[in-house]
Amino acid sequence: MHVSIVGSGYVGTTVAACLADLGHDVTNVDVDEDIVAAINDGESPIHEPGLADLVAEHAGDTLRATTDYDAVRETDVTFLALPTPSEADGAIDLAYMEAGAASLGEALAEKDDDHLVVVKSTVVPGSTEEVVAPAIEEASGKTAGEGFHVAMNPEFLRMGTAVEDFLDPQKVVFGAREPAAYDTLGDVFAPLVAESDAAVVETGLREAEMIKYANNGFLAAKVSLINDIGNICKEFDVDAYEVADAIALDDRIGGKFLRSGLGWGGSCFPKDTNAIIAAARDAGYEPPVLEAAVEVNDLQPERLLGLLDERADVAGERVAVLGLSFKPGTDDVRKTRAVPVIEGLQERGAEVVAYDPVATESFDEHYPDIEVEYADSAAEALEGARAAVAVTDWDEFAALDSEFDAMATPLVLDGRHIIERRDGIEYVGLTW
Ligand SMILES: NC(=O)C1=CN([C@@H]2O[C@H](COP(=O)(O)OP(=O)(O)OC[C@H]3O[C@@H](n4cnc5c(N)ncnc54)[C@H](O)[C@@H]3O)[C@@H](O)[C@H]2O)C=CC1
Ligand SMILES: O=C(O)[C@H]1O[C@H](OP(=O)(O)OP(=O)(O)OC[C@H]2O[C@@H](n3ccc(=O)[nH]c3=O)[C@H](O)[C@@H]2O)[C@H](O)[C@@H](O)[C@@H]1O
């Protein structure tokens, strides 16, 4: 099939390269000329394991990129993988979706055949029907359901394992109104479904939109619940990881997303929980559990710093921060827990020296106002430090050992259950 994908960021590039790999002919449309040039040169514009190989293999053949929306006319279906950031109050900002839909509509105005537009971005219930479709209608002069059709296909991939997750999902969700839309989506995903154990969920547009928020909201709340329980554990000198391992044996609970600690960051859980809370409020419902999930998450960094305060005054002291990315395996620093930790340390007068295996540069670019010293290794960060705080669960931190001997005082606060307890360090776990 001929598929176009508008937006070539984490999701758009991954989906494009994977669909090309599954045998489709794919065109990426992006406003960023550097991204377009990178793809056409056979290079991935983003860092995801396996993605560079796929782009290199298919670019110039069944994968290409352009800034010209007219290219969508040569395709049967267009996925919109555009950003859906937050407004200041947490509500979803649909400006990119509206702009992309308008450009797409202008291009479709001159297409005679039917076209399917699929919203891939995470959008609150009603957005596809009430915002995206009308924007296309206005720009194309066509009517949704006649000249073009709309569908919604949420994405569940994780950063760091995006290619693997896209190609081997547990479910694919098709939200639509007409049987023809399910059929077209079925054709796009047929090679993927054939090669994986994915369940196909055919549902309505709003249900598909909500399934994405329910999925992320549930996982975010699960982490916050184990953090809440973990905080109780800490008060009673109980190891929350032993408790989690035991409750995980109940398959109604399951073992995933039970790692307590500093909580969730990243480009999605914080944005999506706030967006669905704001949308619910707007509709007249205050969702207390999701609100509490956010509150618990916001409190975890301060709880860790409170444990530090009980043991040391770090004013004027060097403190090592281990990890800057929001989770291991990525250089993404959006909403990373490193920010409240570093800010809290600096409020206490500490001189922060930070180390991350891959995210130092992106952290420095993303947070120009945060001034810290960057170290080239964990050992360098630890040298002479009064205390160390583990923020990200990078595997290499689990292997640290004699490096702690170079600290001024070997006080180690672990926010991720990643540092090995050893003789010679004063080890403090956040929930264990
Ligand atoms: N990053 C992730 O792991 C996941 C993200 N999502 C959702 O997918 C959506 C996209 O997210 P990302 O790929 O992370 O965003 P991103 O920010 O990495 O990429 C968006 C791309 O859209 C381009 N763009 C902006 N305006 C445009 C326009 N008018 N026309 C054409 N291109 C335009 C940008 O240049 C950029 O390359 C969001 O709704 C997000 O919540 C869903 C699942 C996973
Ligand atoms: O909508 C999205 O963009 C994506 O959001 C998350 O993916 P991602 O943000 O890449 O990362 P996760 O692996 O889910 O981790 C999110 C955060 O939760 C934290 N976490 C995760 C698991 C856990 O047990 N404990 C915990 O604190 C991680 O450290 C990280 O900060 C979801 O897992 C994806 O399914 C979804 O598609």
TrEMBL record:
Transmembrane segments: none annotated. It catalyses: UDP-alpha-D-glucose + 2 NAD(+) + H2O = UDP-alpha-D-glucuronate + 2 NADH + 3 H(+). The keyword Oxidoreductase applies. Pathway: Nucleotide-sugar biosynthesis; UDP-alpha-D-glucuronate biosynthesis; UDP-alpha-D-glucuronate from UDP-alpha-D-glucose: step 1/1. One of its GO terms (biological process) is UDP-glucuronate biosynthetic process. GO terms for molecular function: NAD binding; UDP-glucose 6-dehydrogenase activity. Substrate binds at K212, F257, L258, R259, S260, G261, G265, K327. Keywords: NAD, Oxidoreductase. The active site is at C268 (nucleophile). NAD(+) binds at D30, T84, T122, K271, R334. Residues 320-421 form the UDP-glucose/GDP-mannose dehydrogenase C-terminal domain. The keyword Mitochondrion does not apply. InterPro entries: 6-PGluconate_DH-like_C_sf, NAD(P)-bd_dom_sf, UDP-Glc/GDP-Man, UDP-Glc/GDP-Man_DH_C, UDP-Glc/GDP-Man_DH_C_sf, UDP-Glc/GDP-Man_DH_dimer, UDP-Glc/GDP-Man_DH_N, UDPGDh_AglM. Its EC number is 1.1.1.22. It comes from the Archaea. Pfam families: UDPG_MGDP_dh, UDPG_MGDP_dh_C, UDPG_MGDP_dh_N. Belongs to the UDP-glucose/GDP-mannose dehydrogenase family. This is UDP-glucose 6-dehydrogenase. It comes from Halosimplex pelagicum.
